[in-house]
Task: inverse folding
C-alpha cells in the first residue's frame, strides 16, 4: 500500500502565474505540487494536512478533494482521502511547532497502516512545513520516501505562498489536469539520506568487518523499517553459521532467498570444515584462549577423517561410544580383522605394551596409527606438530587461568598463531575433500555479500 502525506499550500490544487516571462503570456496555470506528487506516487491513501487558512478554503468549496478525484479519473484508480484540519493553526511558519507535530503524526499513520510505503510531499505548504517534513524523513526509524516537484516554468512570476489563494475554479482545474496529462511529470524522488540509518549502517558494517555478527544483527533489527528484510536475514544467517548452528542458518538463508558461497559437501567433512572456519574466526577476533581450547576436537576429528578418506580405515568399526558420546577403542573389535589387529599392535608398541582401553579416543593415539599406515612422511610430521602444539598450549590453558597473546604462543610452540592455523588448514587439505578455491575466505566472501546489499 502507498500512503501519501502532504501539507497544502496556496499553489494547490493549481498554480497560477501572473506572467510567463519567457513567452510573455499572462495568467498561465499549471498543476500544483500536490497533484504532480500524486501523479508520480499514485497513492492508495492520501492524508491532507491543512492549516487554518487552508481549512477555511476547504470548508468553502472542497477544492482539494474535488481536484484529486478529478485526477484519479484519469489514473483509473480508487483513493481514500483523509483530511487533518488544524483550524486553530494560525502560525503556519512556526518551524519549531512542525518539528514536534510531524514525526508522531507520521508514526501514527505508518503503524496504523501496518508499515506501508510512506511518501511525503516536500513541495507544498509553508517553508516551515516543508523543512520539518525533510527533517522527519531524515531521522525516522523507517523509510520515508520524499517527493520534490520542480517549478512549472522557469522565469514565471508565481503567486507566493503568503498570498491568498484565488477563488476556486473547477473548470480551470480540469483544464489544468488535462494539459498535465500530455506533459512530463515534474515530481521526482530527491536524494535524501536518513541520518539514523546512515549511522546504523556504519555500525552494522563495522561489526560485520570485525566478524561480530551478533552485534550487527542486533543493530540491523532496529532498522527494519529501512533495511530490507532479506539483508537482515542474511546477517542472521551469518551469525548462526559463526556459532555452528547449521539448521537455523539454512532457515535464515531461505527467508533471505539467498545462499552463501561455502563448502556444502554433505556429511562429516562439512562439519569439520565449518569448525575450522569457526576456530579461524576466534583467531581473527583475538580470542586466542577459545582458539586453543577448541583445537583438541578439531585435531581428533581431522586425524580420524584422514584415516577414513585417505587410508580407508573407519575407526567406528573398532570403537565403542558411551551414553555421553565418548568413544574408546574396543579390544574385541580390534581383533576381528587384520586392520584392527595391526592397529592393536601399533598402539601396544607405542605405549610399551600398556595401552589403556579406558581412555577416550585422542590425538596421542591416532598419530602413531597414521604413521603406521601412511607413507606420507611430510603429512605425518605435520600431525606430530599439531599434537605437540595441542600438548604445549591446549593443556595449560585448559587447566589454568592464563592469558595468551601471539608472543606467548610463539614462546610455547615456536610458531605464531597464524602459522598454527595454516598448519590446521594444510592437514585438512590433505584429506582429499575436493575443497573449493578460496574456502578459507568463506567469511570474507559472506561479508562482501552482506555489505554490498546494505
Result:
Amino acid at each position: 500500500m502507498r500512503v501519501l502525506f502532504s501539507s497544502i499550500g496556496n499553489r494547490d490544487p493549481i498554480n497560477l502565474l501572473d506572467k510567463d516571462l519567457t513567452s510573455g503570456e499572462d495568467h498561465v496555470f499549471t498543476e500544483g505540487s500536490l497533484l504532480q506528487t500524486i501523479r508520480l506516487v499514485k497513492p492508495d491513501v492520501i492524508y491532507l494536512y491543512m492549516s487554518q487558512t487552508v481549512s477555511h478554503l476547504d470548508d468553502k468549496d472542497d477544492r482539494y478533494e474535488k481536484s484529486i478525484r478529478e485526477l484519479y479519473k484519469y489514473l483509473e484508480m480508487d483513493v481514500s482521502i483523509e483530511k487533518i484540519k488544524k483550524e486553530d493553526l494560525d502560525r503556519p511558519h512556526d518551524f519549531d511547532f512542525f518539528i514536534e507535530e510531524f514525526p508522531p503524526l507520521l508514526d501514527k499513520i505508518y503503524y496504523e497502516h501496518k508499515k506501508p510505503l510512506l511518501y511525503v510531499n516536500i513541495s507544498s505548504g509553508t517553508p516551515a512545513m516543508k523543512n520539518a517534513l525533510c527533517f522527519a524523513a531524515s531521522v525516522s526509524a523507517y523509510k520515508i520516501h520524499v517527493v520534490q516537484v520542480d517549478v512549472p516554468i522557469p522565469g514565471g512570476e508565481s503567486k507566493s505562498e503568503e498570498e491568498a489563494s484565488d477563488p476556486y475554479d473547477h473548470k480551470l482545474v480540469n483544464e489544468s489536469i488535462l494539459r498535465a496529462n500530455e506533459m512530463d511529470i515534474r515530481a521526482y524522488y530527491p536524494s535524501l539520506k536518513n541520518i539514523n540509518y546512515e549511522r546504523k549502517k556504519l555500525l552494522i558494517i563495522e561489526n560485520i568487518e570485525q566478524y561480530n555478527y551478533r552485534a550487527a544483527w542486533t543493530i540491523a533489527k532496529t532498522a527494519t523499517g529501512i533495511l530490507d528484510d532479506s539483508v537482515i536475514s542474511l546477517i542472521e544467517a551469518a551469525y548462526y553459521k559463526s556459532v555452528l548452528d547449521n539448521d537455523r542458518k539454512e532457515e535464515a538463508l531461505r527467508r533471505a532467498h539467498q545462499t552463501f558461497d561455502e563448502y556444502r559437501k554433505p556429511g562429516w567433512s562439512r562439519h569439520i570444515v565449518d569448525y575450522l572456519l569457526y576456530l579461524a574466526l576466534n583467531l581473527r577476533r583475538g580470542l586466542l584462549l577459545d582458539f586453543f581450547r577448541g583445537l583438541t576436537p578439531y585435531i581428533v576429528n581431522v586425524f580420524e577423517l584422514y584415516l577414513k578418506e585417505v587410508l580407508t580405515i573407519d575407526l567406528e568399526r573398532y570403537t565403542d561410544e558411551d551414553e555421553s558420546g565418548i568413544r574408546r577403542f574396543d579390544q574385541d573389535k580390534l581383533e576381528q580383522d587384520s586392520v584392527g589387529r595391526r592397529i592393536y599392535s601399533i598402539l601396544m608398541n607405542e605405549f610399551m605394551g600398556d595401552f589403556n582401553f579406558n581412555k577416550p579416543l585422542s590425538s596421542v593415539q591416532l598419530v602413531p596409527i597414521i604413521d603406521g599406515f601412511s607413507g606420507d612422511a611430510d603429512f605425518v610430521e605435520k600431525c606430530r606438530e599439531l599434537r605437540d602444539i595441542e600438548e604445549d598450549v591446549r593443556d595449560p590453558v585448559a587447566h589454568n587461568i592464563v592469558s595468551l597473546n601471539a608472543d606467548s604462543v610463539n614462546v610455547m610452540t615456536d610458531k605464531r598463531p597464524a602459522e598454527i592455523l595454516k598448519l590446521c588448514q594444510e592437514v585438512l587439505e590433505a584429506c582429499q575433500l575436493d575443497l573449493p578455491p578460496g574456502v578459507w575466505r568463506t567469511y570474507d566472501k559472506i561479508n562482501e555479500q552482506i555489505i554490498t546489499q546494505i
